[in-house]
Design goal:
- The protein contains two helices and twelve strands, in the order αββββββββββββα.
- The protein is globular.
- The longest helix is centred in the first third of the chain and has 10 residues.
- Strands 2, 3, 5, 6, 9, 11 and 12 form a seven-stranded mixed β-sheet that branches. Strands 1-4-10-7-8 form a five-stranded antiparallel β-sheet, with no helix packed on it.
- It has 196 residues and is mainly β.
Length: 196
Amino acid sequence: MRNLAFVLLISGLPGITLLAQPIFLNNASFEDGAQDATVPSGWFGCQLGSTPDILPGQWGVYQPAEDGDTYVGLITREDGTWESIGQRLSAPLKKNDCYTLTLFLSHSDNYETYNGDLQLRIYGGATKCQQAQVLFESPVIRQARWEEYEIEFFVKQDVHYLVFEAYHPHQGRAYRGNILIDGISPIEKCTRAMLD
């Protein structure tokens, strides 16, 4: 009881803000049975008739996971179609706030014939699969090893959903490509935003 009283006292002081609780994504490392054309549990597909793959072990991709046993692979096609997945957040990202997260990205040179290099785009929206704001656009991912990316972004409107999309980096030229995603961290408020 003494600790609770101390927290209440501190939170009531001017200029003191308690650290915001992180927002955990459901199944953030895409753990599920490896299978092609399957959305990992806790996620939903955002492109009609186009679903991701849970890897390794499908389409010639055998690279070990960075976090846990499995990860997700998203592809693009020469007809201009692509794959994306999304999730409703357990708590909204608030307008005008800064947030940060980390995730691991990679590329496979052996994804059947879907071997082109891609970017990852992350969108935020108010409704399922809505792409109201681009929150992050990765560099072109060429490396076969897992690389960790730290993302920091500001939210222009309240965000209830995130979408992760395989994206062609070359305007006007669709082709077969892939991007691999694993180990998404909890979403946290930026440290500097908390000190304001």
